[in-house]
Amino acid sequence: MSENKDQKFVYDFTEGNKDLKDLLGGKGANLAEMTNLGLPVPPGFTITTEACKVYLESGDEPPALRDEVSAHLAALERKMGKKLGQADDPLLVSVRSGAKFSMPGMMDTVLNIGLSDASVEGLARQSGDERFAWDSYRRLIQMFGKTVLGVEGDLFEEALEEAKRAKQVTVDTDLEPADLKKLVKQFKKIVKAEAGREFPQDPREQMDLAVKAVFDSWNGDRAKLYRRQERIPHDLGTAVNVCSMVFGNLGPDSGTGVAFTRDPASGQQGVYGDYLQNAQGEDVVAGIRNTVPLADLESIDKKSYDQLMGIMETLENHYLDLCDIEFTIERGQLWMLQTRVGKRTAAAAFRIATQLVDQGLIDEAEALQRVNGAQLAQLMFPRFDEGAEVEQVGRGIAASPGAAVGKAVFDSYTAVKWSRSGEKVILIRRETNPDDLDGMIAAEGILTSRGGKTSHAAVVARGMGKTCVCGAEELEVDTKRRRMTVPGGHVVEEGDVVSIDGSTGKVYLGEVPVVPSPVVEYFEGRMHAGADDADELVQAVHRIMAYADRVRRLRVRANADNAEDAARARRFGAQGIGLCRTEHMFLGDRRQYVERLILADTEEEREAALKALLPLQKKDFVELFEAMDGLPVTVRLLDPPLHEFLPDITELSVRVALAEARKEPHENELRLLQAVHRLHEQNPMLGLRGVRLGLVIPGLFTMQVRAIAEAAAERVEAKGDPRAEIMIPLVGTVQELELVRDDAERVIAEVRRSTGVELKLALGTMIELPRAAVTAGQIAECAEFFSFGTNDLTQTVWGFSRDDVEASFFTAYLEKGIFGVSPFETIDKDGVGALVRSAVESGRATRPDIKLGVCGEHGGDPESVHFFHEVGLDYVSCSPFRIPVARLEAGRAAAGSAGSDSR
User: Fold this and answer.
1) Do 117 and 200 fall into the same domain?
2) Which of 213, 295, 569, 764 has the smallest number of Cβ neighbours within 10 A?
3) Considering 243, 468, 855, 878, which one is annotated as catalytic?
4) Where is the Pyruvate phosphate dikinase AMP/ATP-binding domain (predicted)?
């Protein structure tokens, strides 16, 4: 990006506000906002994301940046009355990352910058605490060595563990000044040996190198993986916050903690968080020492506790949401180091949204924007059966809900490897760190023996919607020997099955059976939200869904092929069927009739086969129309290649060969084999299928149309209200549609005459080929509706065979960042989406009243639903269990666009 000569790259905390997240990142914008609110924030300044972008694109920082940093550093030194790293009373600063969107632990932070061999003595004299000064110095060398100089972190950890063993202590706070001085020397030797240079003694060099390291960490492997997982754009860059240090490791009257204004796991109001005396902030989130509950701070430091409670109330009322807060107490003085809208579980999201409405802090439209379809989908997952016989072996902190079952693994590499082989795994660690991200993504759930609700494992798991139990202290995790010892001495080896309940914190041996979620029971009508004993979560879901249904413009239909699925879809709120795949009606016992059709040598044989299929098809449609009475049912005529209804060629060849060897009759098998060879295609998905079948196999489509028409007539005679729509698949030109439509209208007229029932059957087509999309204006002359088949449209636009490419190179494409997400999961707006938009516009230009929908898998994808709302479709159609998600997202899309219009 080109640099503007007058561009400002550095902002003091007094200059920004919470609305400048694009420029100052989330952390910097919120530090500025808290400063503006008059809260106790250590002075500092923020280097903008624009500076990061220049650095990442050019390989060097903007020329003006150094002078701007120097000016702000000088102002900070004047404010603090001391200079960075001076020998007698040094100013120390932290250098912390801060992207627009929270990426917990994914980028780099360095604390205690400004300490050196000279200034550490001054810090010891000024603080009156020699141990504190040398502990801070060893922390700087450790963090700087790992983060800035690329030294393997385990080398420092091993040296620290060796120092504790030599002293015969178990926690680092028991190390004395002499021990820490030795550790500093050891750490500096590690830096020299591994980095090929001395640890820098110049404090400004420390700060400048740390800033560049934070910039570089934006493109670190774990940060890129996290952004792909969370769908965060890769071009945002990170801001860097330079903040004067305050110290929680100055003794028992100091400490550090993380607090939530509400429970991020349940949404309940109360005192939630963790506190650690005599510690710096990284100790809490790393989970290396077990914290005490935040409520214990009241007895430890009542003054700071009361002040913190007041600040938490101020922040929640200001941000109108759950806030996640980091704080430090330095010798009884409370300092606020960060706040952000906190990550929360799916259940907490729904509860908090409705609680804030009830408190009058937000309205229903805003509550709808506070939840999303992915969270609703999580709430529909099964939970453990409380009545099952189980063997509980431990209990930790319920950090992120869900019922997860899998084989125990003890490192991320194994988790990824086994997961790719189809195994379900539970990642078990003492504590997780950012390097474990790929394993956390691969696992069904995460279990740690250390850490609390604010540890790395808990925060990241909640963000991803993964089940997590933290701080199960009674479990002894040995990652080197790949085992976990549970109370009573039983050993869980790698590969043994365990179950973890992220809603209760309980850990079980073996596989625990699951039962349906209460949210699913609510959607299926087995639980009423108005009942006195209704789950609070169910009531919250009910209220938000009711509002979404009131405001959404998109209707939601189901992809359903039988009466049972249709009835379930209707219970889930479906407003019709957008796709009934008739090929599913040709399987099982009916395959024999399809074989007869394929093997027919004469018109009489073909007619006989079709005549046998007709009543079976009609019965299917009668049941379907009855289940969806009064709602539209879009029936797609036969789509797949005929060879799919024949036996496998290898299996059939073996049967023929064996019959010939045994001299057994095999005339039918031989004819089938010949038919398989005759119908064989190199690329059947682009061959004889869809409308082409209807034009090449006489009577096939007309038989299906007759079955639909007769079923509709029967339902009318039974006082029903069938609303059938006939959909022609794989149309590429209007001429194909015209031919099929002529035949269909003739058959419908015959049924109308023979039954005396007035039938209104709509005729339309799927838009699933690029040519259909670009000639949609012509096709609309013959079609009363379009349904976008985005699965096939994605295949044909990209030139992908879905069955092949997802297994072959999609993983590599996702890892390399070519895809942010699979185009089969979320619609490719720039390519496939552009064709959809064009077809909508040209279709409506020809036929203003044309009905437009989508029936591909994208119809139930939250992000895609917003796109379909934007381009003006009338409905989306998806599998029954995704209907609630589509309803919610359709409401969010409508409420969001209304809010944008009003602004």
Assistant:
1) yes
2) 295
3) 855
4) 66-290, 297-350
